[in-house]
Amino acid sequence: MTNDTVKELEIFDRHISKKGLKHSQKRDYIITVFLSTTRHVSVDDLFQIVRKKHPEIGATTVYRTLKLIVSSGLAEEVDFDDGVKRFERKMGREYHAHFICTDCGYHFEVFDKNIKRLSHKLSEASGFHPKKHRLEIFGLCKKCGPSSPKP
After folding, report:
1. In angstroms, what CA-CA distances link 83 with 8, 32, 42, 45, 86?
2. What is the total count of domains within the chain?
3. What is the percentage of the chain residues whose pLDDT exceeds 70?
4. Is residue 135 part of a domain?
5. How far apart are CA 147 and CA 84, in angstroms?
6. Parent domain of 112
7. Whole-model pTM?
């Protein structure tokens, strides 16, 4: 378990305590599974992973736990404009961009310090105080795009 994961579990623990909720083995397992994912997951994706080891955990429990994970600030919803809500971890991933193909749905992430630098520079120049950051770029991937540039 990484240091980030330990911190995330502590944040989640404090969050559910503030909400007056009790710890449960099901909830603890679901957050552990979510924090171990390396991709963007939908509620159904997470449910399918969870039920492999714990078939007694229902989809509603997974959904409610994922809502708690988001409200704790540990995850956020990502919209690839395909009608599927996906979620990703936030800790250590604050400044990155999603590139999404509008034809086939292929997507990838780019982590670059310049994204953070530029967003701070633009915010300062305009006197803007950002609360969160999201950069999604929609277009065509290599497979779906034109095979050669048109004159």
Report:
1. 28, 26, 11, 14, 9
2. 2
3. 94
4. yes
5. 29
6. 96-139
7. 0.73
